[in-house]
């Protein structure tokens, strides 16, 4: 029996295959790959761009301004779609590819899918060394693309055209697997891209992908039920895996029926609304007094879809040494951490099975009401810090509250690095599910504006919140990566950007000084500059206007209120800047393990070292 073939170049075949991959979101069939972020150059401009140009109405290509930021935009898109749809980012070889490594690390740390495609050197090596090639004397097969191996879940280099037949499905399988989810990288040798090959027609048949929901071992469920039934002060920690599984409602119903308070990780925030009856606040270093008090008292902790990062666990000081963990996670690696009773499986499936097996069991009657009382105290503390005062310079907390109040229910808050994460993790009151994106798995400076662009794209189509992305960031992060303001203006994807200008890297200066080191090289006034008494401050509004955005600088909270109303009525990306206090922060009461010099001539450092040793004495090491 003869099989039909289609003769295409490798690049054409790759692109054609991408266009016939589909998935379902809320019951609607949609393309698995929603589009491509691309900067064309040496290595992808002649062959891959030729293939993408031919399908631009089916698989749209969006031009970025920086390879890192366009890959970060793809990550913001994936987050907004809760890992159910994927964007591609493509670059040239050499510096273009290396610019995407940081974004790959961000996706890897956060377990988010993005397909990275970069040009590579010649498989034949005939013209070596080619433009932008980094030569390794002892290994001619090594290129800059090998740098992606440490920050991707799937990596391949295509040296023969037929290799994509097996490689592409494996890349998608990794990106959609709840346990292995993360970025996939494919390097395309330049001469291989041009080669024509007779591909089997079956390779291009449309395929509908489904995200698997692995179920846990029955014995693990039974063991978890037995342990949970011993609990007198149980606690649920809701992580990002709960959101990606779509288990928010199931967890909320389970918690309400069983009388268990739910606290949230940074990635889990937004799974429940702020005033949900079982919500007790964010946990950890940038968490609430309510959640951290409950963590200290908990005897059984049900961790759902969280990798239990140090910020979640207070570097493992937040819990009693006698506390027991039940960890529901699709990834065995995460489920086994800290000798937890591992329930390896999909969050939704596992919670449903756990609920069915628990029978009539409930936590002690007063447990959830006490948690809500603690949460009410925390909410009042927030109010005390967020209420405007007569101070001429507003605090982050006051700005966050004003933006939060002005935001529509469906608007998505986006933040990542600097002082903003702590303030929004504590103080942003989520109004609707899946409207909060704080990238703190990698805390990638520069994620914010790029992710806002990707999030704005994701608001179109099934499963979208439908609102406007609201990006909050500091002046230091703005200076690091802002060019996608221009991208969003060009493409017509609106976001609102609030720049809090506190004169440098204020929150890291706070940590530096808290650990005994004098302010140094963080705040602008502490840097080696010409005029320390009056350092030059960037006019962010004028800068944004130069890139086509609407922009306004605010001198006060009253100005900010008017600017937010104006921004919401605008038809394009709008940037608002406001000077904020570099020294006022909402308090946190969880510990954090960081390195402090063991010896120092400074008494302040010696005191900080002693305090750090006290923190380490409380850690659950090996427990």
From TrEMBL:
SUPFAM superfamilies in the record: DHS-like NAD/FAD-binding domain, Thiamin diphosphate-binding fold (THDP-binding)
GO cellular component: acetolactate synthase complex
Bilayer-spanning residue ranges: none
Domain of life: Bacteria
Matches recorded under InterPro entries: DHS-like_NAD/FAD-binding_dom, Myo_inos_IolD, THDP-binding, Thiamin_PyroP_enz_cen_dom, Thiamin_PyroP_enz_TPP-bd_dom, TPP_enz, TPP_enzyme_TPP-bd
Domain Thiamine pyrophosphate enzyme N-terminal TPP-binding: 36-132
Keywords: Hydrolase, Thiamine pyrophosphate
EC number: 3.7.1.22
Cross-referenced Gene3D superfamilies: 3.40.50.970, TPP-binding domain (3.40.50.1220)
Root EC class: hydrolase
Annotated Thiamine pyrophosphate enzyme TPP-binding domain residues: 418-578
One annotated GO molecular function: flavin adenine dinucleotide binding
One GO BP: isoleucine biosynthetic process
Stretches assigned to the Thiamine pyrophosphate enzyme central domain: 221-354
Pfam family membership, one: TPP_enzyme_M
Family the entry assigns: Belongs to the TPP enzyme family.
PANTHER family: 3D-(3,5_4)-TRIHYDROXYCYCLOHEXANE-1,2-DIONE HYDROLASE (PTHR18968:SF9), THIAMINE PYROPHOSPHATE ENZYMES (PTHR18968)
Name recorded for this polypeptide: 3D-(3,5/4)-trihydroxycyclohexane-1,2-dione acylhydrolase (Decyclizing)
